[in-house]
């Protein structure tokens, strides 16, 4: 059976495309994918690395956009991931590749599981690497430096690393960052700069001033998980306050 990729089209049309579920489209209002991807400098002819894409919320935008003239690598969980949820989410992503070939067939999946699996794309070839709301997980695992080192190796000189992450108050300590899911902007910048990147720009695209960041279960109290109950209260706050940062690898 011939597999046809979706034709390259505009980001504006893809973020509300019929290939996306109504629930995923509804989250555009909180996640601002169009503005975020434009801020990171995404172009349709780029080689792009998406880091830990989860079930593919951003991938379903990126994959068709890059299908004709670009290339998309997805650095996903390893089947040997140390946490039980890791192979489960990887399998969900792989199921989408099988069941939605028009969108996902050209995505090149690599596994990241430091220190054993860190080759997430051909070295020095990615124009743009991006990660969305993942840094806290690496901090919890004590692997944040290894992750950023892997991205630096994959990105070409002059290439970009885009980071979106739940933003802690700047006075937050490491214990708080390991337990709440919120990370200070200063620490994210420090991690990227230690790896060799240079901070180029900050954006408030994904800021949420309603987020008081003092919830019983940290970021997991907020949508979409709502793990603290009190659904109306946390729905009214919305998704977390998030930093959006663009770094560049020196030439």
Give me the count of strands: 7
Shape: globular
Which stretches of 5+ consecutive residues score pLDDT under 50?
1-5
- The number of helical segments is 12
The rounded distance between the terminal residues' Cα atoms is 44 Å
Task: Give the amount of beta strand, in percent.
Answer: 15-25%
Mean pLDDT value: 95
- Assign a percent range to the helix content: 25-40%
Q: What topology, given as strand order, has the largest sheet?
A: 3-2-1-4-5-7-6
What is the radius of gyration? 17 Å
Structure class: alpha/beta
SSE series: HHHHEHEHHEEHHEHHEHE
| Largest sheet entry | 7 strands, mixed
Structure description:
The protein is of the alpha/beta class. It has twelve helices and seven strands. Helices cover 36% and strands 19% of the residues. A seven-stranded mixed β-sheet has the order 3-2-1-4-5-7-6. Helix 9 (144-154) packs across helix 11. The longest helix is centred in the middle third of the chain and has 15 residues, at 85-99. It is globular and about 45 Å long. It starts with 10 loop residues before the first helix and ends with a strand.
Provide a quick synopsis of the model:
By secondary structure, the protein is an alpha/beta fold.
Main attributes?
251 residues; alpha/beta; 7-stranded mixed β-sheet; 12 helices; 36% helix; disordered N terminus
């Amino acid at each position: 059976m011939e597999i046809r990729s979706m034709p390259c089209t505009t980001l504006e049309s893809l973020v509300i495309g019929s290939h996306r579920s109504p629930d995923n489209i509804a989250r555009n209002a909180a996640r601002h994918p169009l503005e975020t991807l434009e801020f990171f400098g995404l172009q349709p002819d780029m080689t792009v690395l998406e880091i830990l894409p989860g079930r593919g919320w951003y991938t379903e935008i990126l994959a068709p956009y890059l299908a004709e003239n670009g290339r998309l690598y997805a650095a996903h969980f390893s089947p040997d991931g140390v946490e039980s949820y890791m192979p489960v989410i990887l399998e969900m992503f792989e199921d989408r590749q099988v069941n939605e070939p028009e969108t996902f067939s050209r995505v090149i999946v690599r596994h990241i599981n430091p220190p054993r699996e860190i080759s997430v794309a051909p070295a020095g070839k990615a124009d743009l690497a991006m990660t969305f709301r993942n840094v806290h997980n690496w901090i919890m695992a004590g692997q944040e430096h290894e992750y950023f080192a892997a991205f630096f190796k994959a990105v070409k000189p002059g290439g970009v690393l885009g980071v979106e992450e739940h933003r802690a108050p700047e006075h937050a300590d490491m214990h708080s960052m390991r337990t709440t899911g919120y990370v200070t902007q200063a620490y994210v910048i420090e991690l990227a700069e230690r790896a060799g990147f240079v901070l180029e720009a900050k954006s408030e695209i994904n800021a949420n001033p309603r987020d008081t960041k003092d919830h019983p279960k940290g970021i997991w109290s907020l949508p979409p998980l709502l793990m603290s109950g009190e659904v109306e209260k946390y729905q009214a706050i919305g998704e977390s306050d998030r930093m959006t940062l663009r770094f560049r690898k020196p030439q």
